[in-house]
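INFO batch 0412 | record 1 of 1 | parsing
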Amino acid sequence: MVIEVVERTPVAAVPVGEQFTLIDAEGVAYRTVVRPPDGLPVARLAAPGPQDINTRSALTVLSALTAELREQLVSISVPAPAQVQLVLRRDRRVIWGDDSQSETKAQVATALLERRGDTIDVSAPKVVTIR
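INFO prediction complete | emitting tokens
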């Protein structure tokens, strides 16, 4: 018999009441903490888990982020698969839309970080708006 132990690495912290549940890259919730670890984004998900479509969308987007976006990321919210939104530092928002073309959306959003505006909409990455 061989037993393999694989340590889970958190990719996001999901608020649950006054605590946070850590989820890994597969969406598995595995630990509850009082506050999220430094540098870990908060994921606003109604029912986190590997089978939840909103969790899978969040994980797809998180895995596509550039280092610059990840550094500024405060939270990701996914109330529905086509309503992904990022909150960045300085109260800036990125409207992501669905998780399709996430690598392209990440590159476009990163290129626009230096522009003025509180909201960057990359939901249609070929027709971007900044407000």
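INFO post-check: The radius of gyration is 15 Å.
INFO record closed
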